[in-house]
Design brief:
Layout (H helix, E strand, L loop, with lengths): L2 E2 H8 L2 E3 L5 E2 L1 E2 L9 E4 L7 H5 L4 E4 L10 E3 L3 H16 L11 E2 L4 E2 L4 E2 L4 E2 L4 E2 L4 E2 L4 E2 L4 E2 L4 E2 L4 E2 L4 E2 L4 E2 L4 E4 L4 E4 L2 E4 L5 E4 L4 E2 L4 E3 L5 E4 L4 E2 L4 E2 L4 E2 L4 E2 L4 E2 L4 E2 L4 E2 L4 E2 L4 E2 L4 E2 L4 E2 L8 E3 L4 E2 H12 L1 H23 L1
Parallel strand pairs: 4-5, 5-6, 6-7, 8-11, 9-12, 10-13, 11-14, 12-15, 13-16, 14-17, 15-18, 16-19, 17-20, 18-23, 19-24, 20-25, 23-26, 24-27, 25-28, 26-29, 27-30, 28-31, 29-32, 30-33, 31-34, 32-35, 33-36, 34-37, 36-38
Antiparallel strand pairs: 1-3, 2-7, 21-22, 38-39
Length: 344
């Protein structure tokens, strides 16, 4: 990247304060930046870093800051910085181009225009890949899989038969989509496998992290709604339905046939039992265990999960237990003393 501050301000629809002609060659964090970099400040409590950073310019909110640093004022500094990072990334990352001679294509495979297939990628019979999609080396795409346009699939991803992937989806390395759901029936101490004959359907604009597993439905569909973002090491079981624009953070486990509404946040290591519902716009905090359905527009925490304020009050009581125990011991001694006096 080699842009003037004015050009970057126009790119992010911001307002320049200071020298608009300075040249920006990179982007970095406010502590890590060097001369030539642009950085951002999204929280005013870090204002002291504004004058100490080595960055040549800083993206801030619209509020006024007293500083000699050239600024770009924006409505959302974090989003503006993300857009600028995309410019830097475009200069540094080169995806595979063309179809590698070692890629293996089955019968009746349909490839859109401007497709990239890396070395040893496998696409089985009757699969379809949309325009401008990039398939990295070592990816397996099963029979009758349908992949949309502008999809980016990193190395060693497995997408099993009949899965449906929408447009503008990103899937990171090691993820498995469409593996069998964990379904068994136990008879006389033996576990007999229940066939899993459904599919997985991934909506548009979804991003799936590394080493995520999304199981196919027993019947019907396991669904990930459009715009949802899934972190690394997440397990999503059969027949789970996740709504639109959700954030599913690392090491979350969602049991079978659970339904997650739109705009839900499940923080790290949250676990959910099967056959429950989580309402729209709800947040479940880290390491919570959800054993019952949760309403919309709520914040839940703890294990078992309950409304956050209720859980915080319970935790406060638990932290007071040592003091309460000492008080009980002291009162017990006093009562014993009074009883001895009354007996005398």
């Amino acid at each position: 990247m080699h842009k003037t501050l004015k050009e970057l301000a126009e790119f992010v629809q911001g307002e320049v304060v200071g020298d608009a002609s300075i040249i920006i060659t990179g982007a970095n964090g406010i502590k890590e930046s060097e001369p030539g970099d642009i950085t951002f400040l999204s929280n005013s409590k870090y204002f002291t870093l504004l004058n100490s950073t080595s960055a040549s310019a800083v993206i801030t909110s619209r509020e006024s800051f007293k500083t000699d640093k050239p600024l770009i004022r924006t409505d959302n500094p974090s989003l503006a910085f993300a857009k600028i990072i995309s410019l830097v990334k475009a200069d540094t990352i080169s995806h595979p181009k063309g179809i590698h001679p070692s890629a293996i294509l089955g019968k009746n495979v349909t490839l859109g225009e401007n497709i990239s297939l890396g070395a040893h990628a496998v696409i089985e019979d009757n699969a379809c890949v949309g325009d401008n999609s990039i398939i990295y080396p070592g990816v397996f795409i099963g029979k009758k899989v349908n992949i949309g346009s502008n999809v980016l699939i990193y190395p060693n991803v497995s997408i099993r038969e009949e899965s449906v992937i929408g447009n503008n989806v990103i899937i990171h390395s090691g993820t498995v989509i469409g593996s069998d759901g964990f379904g068994f029936v136990s008879i006389e101490g033996k576990h007999h496998k229940i066939p899993q004959v459904g599919i997985v359907e991934i909506g548009d604009d979804v991003e799936i992290g590394a080493n995520v597993t999304i199981d196919r439905a027993r019947f019907g569909k396991t669904v990930i709604g459009a715009g949802t973002k899934i972190d690394n090491l997440v397990q999503i079981a059969h027949n789970v339905v996740i709504g639109k624009n959700c954030l599913i953070v690392a090491q979350v486990g969602i049991s079978g046939s659970t339904t997650i509404g739109d705009n839900v946040i499940l923080a790290g290591q949250v676990g959910l039992v099967g056959h429950i519902k989580v309402g729209d716009n709800t947040v479940v905090t880290a390491q919570s265990g959800v054993s019952k359905s949760i309403p919309s527009n709520a914040v839940f925490s703890g294990s078992p999960a309950r409304p956050n304020m209720e859980n915080q009050r319970s935790l406060a009581c638990i932290s007071s237990l040592p003091k309460i125990l000492n008080l009980v011991k002291e009162l017990k001694k006093r009562i014993e003393g009074l009883e001895q006096k009354l007996a005398g």
